[in-house]
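User: Design a sequence. Structure:
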């Protein structure tokens, strides 16, 4: 996983829980990287799991809730880094349909070693988009938070629900009233 994602997580932790908590989770996670991340570096995604687990122990908030909150927080960071990849005028649904076909492929051009999930569009209509998330990293709660961040960013009256399948894939259902 790219260092930008780790620095984003630690930035959120510092802002919401303070420097001491950020420092504690790094120390307690016993990380191969020692918590020193550069934005272009690549680190084992299991370090993310360790940091979230320690943060959960420190705060009493579940790991899933923390990953979701991080996704929502991180969307604005991604949007500011991806100026030119999309704009608010695209609208939420067009944007969501472009993550797999355009946005993540552009990320791969910038970072050839990026590890990205697959999103299959299962339904696309005026009222509803269904995206099937597939990734061996199982970061569906991060995806859930990112989609909530996107809804907020585009300012549309939409909601998202998630269904984790037995296969381990996750279906996201994004609907407009
Ligand atoms: C709502 C829209 C988006 C969703 C749901 C989404 C979902 C995800 C998820 C779940 C991951 C974690 C890896 C995995 O699950 O296997 C990821 C990684 C990533 N995404 Fe997206 N993404 C979205 C939009 C974007 C945008 C707008 C950008 C900006 C250019 C972006 C750039 C990245 C980058 C840099 C990574 C890290 C890759 C790595 O660490 O190797 N994503 N995305």
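Assistant: Done.
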């Amino acid at each position: 996983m790219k260092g930008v994602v780790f620095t984003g997580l630690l930035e959120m932790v510092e802002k919401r829980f303070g420097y001491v908590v950020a420092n504690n989770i790094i120390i307690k996670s016993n990380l191969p990287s020692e918590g020193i991340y550069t934005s272009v570096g690549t680190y084992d995604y299991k370090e993310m799991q360790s940091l979230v687990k320690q943060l959960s122990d420190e705060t009493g908030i579940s790991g899933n809730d923390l990953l979701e909150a991080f996704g929502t927080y991180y969307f604005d960071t991604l949007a500011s880094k991806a100026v030119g990849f999309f704009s608010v005028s695209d609208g939420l649904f067009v944007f969501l349909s472009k993550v797999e076909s355009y946005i993540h492929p552009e990320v791969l051009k910038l970072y050839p070693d990026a590890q990205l999930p697959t999103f299959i569009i299962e339904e696309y209509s005026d009222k509803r988009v269904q995206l099937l998330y597939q990734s061996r990293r199982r970061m569906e709660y991060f995806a859930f938070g990112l989609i909530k961040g996107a809804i907020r960013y585009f300012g549309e009256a939409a909601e998202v629900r998630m269904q984790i399948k037995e296969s381990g894939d996750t279906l996201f259902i994004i609907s407009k009233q």
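The two ends are 36 Å apart (CA to CA). The CA atoms of residues 15 and 22 lie 9 Å apart.
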